[in-house]
Input
Amino acid sequence: LILLFFPTLHLIAIAINYWLGGAPLEFAFIKELMAMPAGILFVVIMYLLQSALEELGWRGYMLDRLQTIWKPVTASIVLGVFHAFWHLPLFWIVGTNQSRYLSGIDFTLFVAFVVAGSFYNTWCYNDNHRSILAVILFHTSTNLSVDTFLLPGTGEYIFKIVAAFGAVLIAIAWSLPSWKQKQVAST
Output
């Protein structure tokens, strides 16, 4: 689930994009990697390192403190908003993913996507007995998937909406009595 969750969300978005007549995937990221002999290994290590440094703070420190005050839904929203604005300096660095998101709808969907990602990461963290390694691998898989399956144009909007919809489903599941009983039993 950790390695295949976001690729699956991308496949759903790709199918919806195709059904709506959107542009096909360009796989520019993969093409760039193939041009470098050791590119794939380097990129995976860099993505893993970046995810590890972020998640040590987000889930390794901040989430536990937030969950002592709030339920997972509220903690995920608060953490997701902080995480979204953590990326703010990257919006002005040419070549980063965030540099494409300076307009209103793009920025709004970026924040929605990062908050949705916070729900997924909280879910991964909590359901893996507060495992930082699990959430680091999940975050790495997410980032690699986002860059590998980058949909052009409206396809990217579709993906972010699919991801946000999934996060809403998780929030609903967290509020169900069966989920609450599972959480009480595991503590």
The chain has a mean pLDDT of 86.
